[in-house]
Amino acid sequence: MAKKSKSVYMCTECGNEYLSWQGQCSYCGAWNTIVEHKISDLKEPAADSRRRTGTEGKPVRLGSVGTSDYARMDSGIGELNRVLGGGIVLGSLTLISGEPGIGKSTIIAQAANRIANTYGKVLYVSGEESEEQVKLRADRVCSGISDDLFIYPETNLENILAVCDEIKPCFLIIDSIQTMYSAEVDSVAGSVTQIRACSNLLIKFAKTNNVPVFIIAHVTKSGELAGPKTIEHMVDCVLNFTGERDRDLRILRSFKNRFGTTDEIGAFRMTSEGMSEVSDLSGSLIETDACEEGSVVSAVYEGSRPVFFEIQALVTQANVGFARRTAVGINYNRLSMILAVLEKKAGLNLLNYDVYVNVVGGMNTGSTATDLAVALAIYSSFKGKAASRRIVAVGEVGLTGHLRSIPNSDKIIQEAIRLGYEAVILPDRNAKQAAESGKISVQDAGRSISVTPKVPGISSDIKVIGASNIADAIRAYIS
After folding, report:
1. Stated pTM of the model
2. CA atoms of 391 and 308, how far apart (whole Å)
3. Which residues contact 179 (CB under 8 A, 6 or more apart)?
4. pLDDT tens digit string along 269-312?
5. Which fold, 72-279?
6. Is CATH 3.30.230.10 what the domain over 283-478 is classified as, yes or no?
């Protein structure tokens, strides 16, 4: 007897389901994204084959549950281990996304080869490229291909799982999830139904066999992860590769991590020999030591390390029409707010001036800690004055003109000392916290604090300047 099937209508953007077709998704608001999917009406098997917990489904007291550290696998790439929280957790499912050509397959191929050399068999499933194409990339980015690295060009997930049962890999890579399909689902590859079904099968395989799985996923035109949002909830880690096409710097960020922090970033450079790690990200982003007009160095604390970068501003007379405001690397609305504060609290009349702000190096900062540096760079360009010494400026600018404190300011001070800066401008509260923490020794009390770092091998002094508002910070910058 032929199996029955029913139709369900799903939005390809958000995965919301409907009983009938309609032009606009009422959940995400997208137009013409609701498509029909046929679902087989199959009965559940008598025996439940789904994975159960170690307590066999019985409720237990949380305090009596034993805890242990998760076993991790070294990927052979330090920056990737950093983002994952120390390595790849066995039995985990990791989703990595990014724009085409950003380097997703390259870094995964490098990690796969190093894992194969250390731990054993690794299966690389390619649904987009042939064996020859993958081999050409591996020859370019890997120094010697391991005998335990297997390539399997296949899109049928049942065949893939059958091969996994045969060769028993210690690491599985799916490139990409949008090309995979399950024969049990009556839908085309890449549809919401197929992606959800394939993800469920991969999760079951990873958890049952304690094998880590890496899934490469496509992104939409807006840069968001393609497919239903529920996949991000199903997997253990969600990683995203970002970078500019005309620059070689690549940043790997963790949007979700059940086994570590989501604040860490990994830095890489795309070279002819693959992805190379950038251990000193701050030093690579700052190329000049000269004090230039309209240029101020700022910093943000990402995960376990401070990242320094240069913010440049250019203020010029507007020739025609309304003045332009252009922001590259910082939020445009944040720039508009800072300009309003400068006009109100610092007396800058920027109504008839074009303002351009750029974060050098292709970094995209979403932190409010860069507000002060943006304000000082605009002031410097408008007045035509450059700082007389190498200064780092960090702090959030409020609508009242007062500076708000930022986290981890003491670590930013220590990094500024390592990089050889002469002064750091901070909000008042951060300057006092740095003096009270004991990590720096205060030589002179007052608004300007001269400190000596307690860092072995470094004996230089640095001025830590606390400013309560934007006017105080401007005076400290030009003094």
Report:
1. 0.76
2. 12
3. 127, 128, 155, 189, 190
4. 888 888 899 888 887 788 777 788 999 999 998 877 889 999 99
5. Rossmann fold (3.40.50)
6. yes
